[in-house]
Amino acid sequence: MPAVDKLLLEEALQDSPQTRSLLSVFEEDAGTLTDYTNQLLQAMQRVYGAQNEMCLATQQLSKQLLAYEKQNFALGKGDEEVISTLHYFSKVVDELNLLHTELAKQLADTMVLPIIQFREKDLTEVSTLKDLFGLASNEHDLSMAKYSRLPKKKENEKVKTEVGKEVAAARRKQHLSSLQYYCALNALQYRKQMAMMEPMIGFAHGQINFFKKGAEMFSKRMDSFLSSVADMVQR
Amino acid sequence: MPAVDKLLLEEALQDSPQTRSLLSVFEEDAGTLTDYTNQLLQAMQRVYGAQNEMCLATQQLSKQLLAYEKQNFALGKGDEEVISTLHYFSKVVDELNLLHTELAKQLADTMVLPIIQFREKDLTEVSTLKDLFGLASNEHDLSMAKYSRLPKKKENEKVKTEVGKEVAAARRKQHLSSLQYYCALNALQYRKQMAMMEPMIGFAHGQINFFKKGAEMFSKRMDSFLSSVADMVQR
């Protein structure tokens, strides 16, 4: 593992084999990071999906509890008690649904979104600049080859000057694209730590908020209600 | 809505039109209850399914966080901090996964299981006894018809006695099956209230336990860890 932080921009113009070799290390690292980020995003989206499904499921349950009243049972004896208890439970499930909905939104905004942005912005940028750098390097190689194939005769001076200008332009282009590419690779190293931790900070904050509010909601009030319902059922 | 609690067993033998009419009310009620129970079970199974998926999703996320260490990043600078933070988050997700797993088990045992048992035992019993009662009534009707079609001549006395015995046996059988059927319908009315409320009591107890333990877990210890990670990220 080389003890370097970044690709030096002043090395870009010379484009030495050492610089190229260091570049390949940064590229390998970016490739590993892209793969890992995709897997992490998948795992996080699964958690978000489960959270979302919990919202929909609690919504359906609450509706189903209210629906008892509308069944028009042929025998309705004792139903008032059941109806009012199921109404209460429906309200509890609604409150729970609010908490789940809030958590789902938080997970979307503070866990899934940052890692999607990291992928779409930082990783995609590196990959685009890699392609552009590859194209510019190719062009530069081609114009260099063209120049070196020119006959050494004096009467070709004019053509040589033309091709020389082409080579210079290609080198400027390659230099510029390598500067951009190096910058993006350096920035990726800089962003890496934060990109990995930020979504989990969002996740943890969401969970803390969820449990805090949930514990407040299911307070002693709920306990006493449950024991009175349990008494009723035992009667 | 008739002001009755139950089908009187002493009316079963006479099998009057009034008793038959009351029986149909109980049957209609049982039909409505069966439909409603199936819908409620479906909604509860959806909640259980979402809870179960949350267990699997958090398990996958925890593994993915640990996997960062095994990526062999080409550039490992500053990774020790990321690795140890992701390890800590993985432990947090594991603890959360334990809570989710416990809740899923409680929902299975105290919400889904009771309502499945109500359906498989009480509702299925009523439906089976309804079929048996129908068969026995049919047999009784057939033997009655056979008896009434017998010629009135004196020489048929022996046949009449035979068929008379058949009728009596069919009536005993029908009477017995109606007694069982009435009992099951009465028991269903008795169980109805409890069967509707018991799963929701289980649900509420599970949630209370979940939030209580979750709030304890995400205590101040977690808050201070998060702010130190946030500081690190900002540096």
UniProtKB/TrEMBL annotation, chains A, B:
GO terms for biological process: signaling. InterPro entries: AH/BAR_dom_sf, BAR_dom, DP13A/B. It holds the Pfam family BAR_3. SUPFAM superfamilies: BAR/IMD domain-like. GO terms for cellular component: endosome membrane. Residues 8-234 form the BAR domain. PANTHER family: ADAPTOR PROTEIN, PHOSPHOTYROSINE INTERACTION, PH DOMAIN AND LEUCINE ZIPPER-CONTAINING 2, DCC-INTERACTING PROTEIN 13-BETA. This is APPL2 isoform 2. It comes from Pongo abelii (Sumatran orangutan).
